[in-house]
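Help wanted!
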Amino acid sequence: MSDTSKEDELIANLRIIIEGCATDPIDLSNFSTTTKVQEIGLDSLTILDMFYDIEQETGISIEQEELVDFRTVGDITTLLINKGA
Amino acid sequence: MTHPDQSVSSSARKRVVVSGMGIVSSIGLDQDTVWQNLIAGKTGIDTLSSIDTSECKVKIGAEVPEGVVEEQLKLLRRRPVDRTLDQSIVAARDALTQAGLYDSEAELENQDISVVFGTGAGVDHSLYNAFKLFEEKGPKGARPTTVPRCMHNAISAALSLQFKLTGTNYMVVSACTSASNAMGMAFRMIRDGYVDTVLTGGADAFFNPFYFGIWNNIPALSKIEDPLKACRPFGVDREGTVLGEGAGVLIFESYEKATARGAPILGEILGYGESSDAKHITSPDVDGQVKAMRMALNDSGINPGDLSFINSHGTATKGNDSCESQSIRTVLGNGVDQVPVSANKSYFGHSLGASGALESIASLLSLKHGLVPGNLNLENPDPVCNVNLIGANPVSIKPGPVMKNSFGFGGGNGVLILGPHN
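Answered by r_m:
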């Protein structure tokens, strides 16, 4: 599977996961790699929960120090691809 | 505004009024509906539908109808996170709205309002889910947000965050006395000049397999299977209480501030008393209850004979109702026959940490309408409960001070004296 299709698949999964773990409803109508994390209101706790759900779903393990400041959704998908998600 | 001077003299004490009320309960999510059901003698107790009770001894309770809170949360652009917390948010919105302190159309700004809120079980749905995950998967199964989701003050924190309330925020946790204790603290904070406005009350929503399951093994729940007849406060045929869920929120405010901004004044808090039995963790005690009632009356400066009625704790357990009756007789003395005694738990169920708030709201509605709801199911009063019990039908009263009793597991007693606005 190409990186692009892998990224598309991750984006689709991320959207589902974020919708499930966000306390407040989030507008994900234009959700893509260039979407800025801040713009869609992903706070630090929602990001923690999001990675928890990803770990549970995919079996990958993400260390605390890898949870850097993510600027865009693409930064998140890059990390996940690098981790073999 | 805070006033750190701790040597507030009695002459400097402020009057404390109620400027807003919000309610989420099995008999309604607004004051009018709740009042109509109280006067019509309609109970919220029914066969439980939100959990599987097939292995439980008890299968009834007073549930908030499925989906109604979720609908309200959508209007606030919130997702459901925990049943107790969610119900608190909805009740708080309505109380703040009535007080003129929240407008869903306007942009929210910080307000110097404190949150002092009661709960018995706290966010027990969140805790139940977290325990299940932990048991299943070990420490790695714990959601990273488990701590902020499951802490007791998740509720007061959420209220502060949702409505941008920048006074203090904390919870009061004392089982069935929680809401009355919280309201008592809120009352003192305003009366003694530390703050002007407090969002207070209490909430409990514990219909999940764990919490309802463990309650089943306490011999305090009614074994009567008919939901309409199961909760019978002060009846000789009472067999125990019936659990209920809900949230009651009241906005307490200094009289000066409320009148200056033209807020509705729904009633006044005249006094508060509290005590601890220090006798037994679950059995009530006359001495402790009498002490709290007398303290509240002294605090308010009114005589027992001035009470328009007493809204009792009235759980419908053998132990509480006989003990409370004896305590009321002790406090009222020869005047006991002049003061009607009511109980609301046959309507709301026993909502533990919310009960003091729901029943205080019911009391203030009684003062508004000059009418006290009947004691539902009181067909055969227990001779041991020798106080002036209201019958099954509503009775008219001349609005005056009301004593609201709350007594809890742990031996805590909290008594409020509520009054009509004059």
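OP: Thanks! One thing I noticed: The interface with chain B takes residues 22-25, 45, 48-49, 51-52, 56 of chain A (CB under 8 Å).
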